[in-house]
Amino acid sequence: MFDFLFSAETRRRKSLESTAEGPVKQYLSVPLPDLKSDIHVVPLLALDFETSGLKPSKDCILSVGYVAVNGGEISLSTACHQLIKSSEALTEESVVIHKITDDASAAGESIEAVIGNLLQALAGKVMVAHNAKIETTFLAQACKKLYGVSPYFPAIDTMLIAKRWLERRNKEIAQGDLRLFNLRKQYGLPMYQAHNALSDAIATAELLQAQIAHMDSDRKLPLKQFIK
User: How confident is the model at residue 89, as a pLDDT?
Assistant: First the structure.
């Protein structure tokens, strides 16, 4: 795993050399955190997307929510929630889930502005997401469409952490056990509104802090132990 992540840092430097000026180059200009760093001090950005579907090739990001975690503390002053203007009509099925209507979407920000802001916030930090494949693939696809390049986004996946913990203890994983809010219940964390990008991002940040504390918050835990 270490070799893979090292090559990703090498790829970041090479991509920086060939990437044109703009938000992606600014993101790439900041080195990735050292894999040996203690997770307690690694700068993180908890992130959640609400999307029109699950396929980045045809679906779109509807809203973005994120909050920074600095020195092991969730910095609510950095919290950001933005709706993205969509030119496509939303399906009734998706609106039922994320509660973002066509009118709300039409009043949103441009995807260029939102992704630009997100890349600036993410620079020098490690992404934290629940089922991080959604956020990493949709963000990479958005960058490809906007800037012609798909940068590497290192991520900590709270769902994967929970899955590995259960597997190591030979515990059966039932349907729904790995859902964000079901996992939060196990740690006595409060219930928040589901399918709101910002509340889900904060909920994910809190879940990670609980998972870290459960592992043993008094000892050094290297980033490479958590990275996806």
Answer: 57
